């Protein structure tokens, strides 16, 4: 039995480490926000790219998070932002004319990430997009 468990665990580790795009979908309190293995929160929403960009700016302002910069990436933009304790990177990627992917990476330091803040940013963006306050 122990040999089977060890073999299974070894195979799972190899599978996870060899997959560059592995992700884990966590639902429940996070409302369907998914996370990559490296704890980057992401979600695709059915709103145009420009509208999502405006909602991201509004959400950051609402949350008291200071924008630090913006740069173009393939199919979108990356917004960098900061708090006293976090460096935040938000990617907004155009999927179609009506669909946009939001990815949020909230870093405490080189090792630790704040998935709760990343999730809250996405949830605030969704509230704004849906006309909520």
User: How would you write the strand order of the largest sheet?
Assistant: 1-2-3-7-6-5-4
Question: How large is the share of residues in beta strands?
Answer: 25-35%
CATH class annotation: Alpha Beta
Q: Could you tell me the number of beta strands?
A: 7
Number of domains: 1
Q: Residue share in helices?
A: 25-40%
Report the order of strands and helices. HEEEHEEEEH
**Nearest-angstrom radius of gyration?**
17 Å
CATH architecture annotation name: 2-Layer Sandwich
End-to-end separation in angstroms reads 55 Å
Q: What would you call the structural class?
A: alpha+beta
The CATH topology turns out to be TATA-Binding Protein
Q: What overall form do the CA principal axes indicate?
A: globular
- Count of DSSP H/I helices: 3
CATH homologous superfamily classification: Bacterial toxin RNase RnlA/LsoA, N-terminal domain
Q: Unreliable runs, pLDDT <50, ≥5 residues?
A: 15-30
Give the overall average pLDDT. Answer: 82
Largest sheet: 7 strands, antiparallel
